[in-house]
Amino acid sequence: MALPNINFSDDHLRLQAVANQISREFLLPQAARHDKDESFNEDGFQAAVDAGLLGTWIPKAYGGNEHGVLGLAMVVEEFSKADPAFGVAFAVNALGSFPIIVGGTEEQKQKYLPRVAKGKAACAFALSEKFAGSDAGGLSVRGDKVDGGWKINGEKKWTTNGSRANILTCFAVTDPSSRSRRISAFIVENTDPGFSIKKVEDKMGIRSVPVCETAFDDVFVADDRLIGGSPGLGFKHSMMTLDLARPGVAAQAVGTAAGALELANTYANRRKQFGQSIASFQMVQQMLADMAMKTEAARWLVYACAAAADAGDMKAVNKYAAMAKCFSTDVAVAVATDAVQVFGGYGFMEDYPIAKFYRDAKILQIYEGTNQVQRMVIARNLMKEAGQYDYLNDVIPQEVQETYAGEYEIANT
After folding, report:
1. How many CB atoms are located within 10 Å of the residue 337 CB?
2. What tens digit of pLDDT does each residue of 89-140 get?
């Protein structure tokens, strides 16, 4: 299963440059304050809106720029390099709108996607619950059919952007007796009676992004807000969405790693011990070199996966999105950890920005599918591929098989 070539258009490079400029003007100077205050960077978000970056992943037919998952990844990487939390806040708008893009009716796309593209509506993705995280099929929030629509009841946990979102794609059980069509997806608006924010979480990292418990108390949504127009398609929509969104999470990780590496490299070249910069010490050089290699490897895996998504090869994306998400987020945590070590005692102090990168990195291994689940997805894809052909019979000469028949039988079972 080969990945496609990565073709960077002039528009992709322009997006990257614009995101970098916004990062340096609005994100870097304000990141520490918003982290400390747990306040959202509205100035940075408005700058992204004004630059048209909220339309990056949305088709032109619905008011977007149609630069795809690759464009999204490049923008998110630049934002996360300056402030990983803001990278999360930006990317979750794609996560929340992807269900409409992949499964919505034409009327739903026409109504909601232009609002997202123009920055007039922020999005959230309401899937996880207190007792349903990695097991997306284990939801308990109910959607019950009533005249003219549906009533949604229950609570969602860890709804990123929940208190800012105007539009939430909410997943609820509509047919408890079914295994394949148990869940449906709905468009909920934050002004709908019965919708409320129960709690804003107190988090270790990404503190400037509101992550909330959202409650649905007899929230009525009309039939035209059932995504796709038919019940029972929610699980399919959620899995397709996560496959498309994971390159964005992986890009957050690449940006986090790149930002941490940049800080560590600058500090190592300025910090003097024993009469010379610590960057001149071989042990520090080895750490920086390993950090750089890991970051670069993660970056190109993410770009390749994003290109596959834009090419429409969803079979490849399922496998490589899991790889990109798992590998790059492990890299982000490892690089941020080593960056703190390069800073030494100062790295443990909140006076320096590297502590925030360290705290922000950890969640990347957890949300949108834990890295343990990603490894399960990767392994299952490998097992499917193994059933497509008999690799050992193809590569081991017949005479060798006959000579070592006993050992071969054991190895081939």
Report:
1. 16
2. 999 999 999 999 999 999 999 999 999 999 999 999 999 999 887 777 789 9
pLDDT digits (tens, 9 = 90+) for 176-198: 999 889 999 999 999 999 999 99
Catalytic residue among 368, 385, 402, 407: 368
| Whole-angstrom distance, CA of residue 391 vs CA of residue 173 | 43
The amino acid that residue 46 corresponds to is Q
Q: Which of 81, 359, 337 is nearest to 208 (CA)?
A: 359
Report the alpha-carbon distance of residue 234 to residue 186 in Å, rounded.
Answer: 8
d(CA 351, CA 344): 13
Residue with tokens 């969405």: 241
**201 has catalytic annotation:** no
Burial of 388 (0-12, 13-18, 19+ CB in 10 A): exposed
Residue 294 near residue 369 (C-beta atoms within 8 A): no
Question: What token pair was written down for 237?
Answer: 């929509």
Mean pLDDT (whole number) for 172-178: 94
Q: What is the pLDDT of residue 394?
A: 60
Q: How much is the mean pLDDT over the chain? A: 92
**Tokens of residue 41, six digits:** 């960077």
Domains defined for the chain, CATH in brackets: 10-121 (1.10.540.10), 124-235 (2.40.110.10), 242-386 (1.20.140.10)
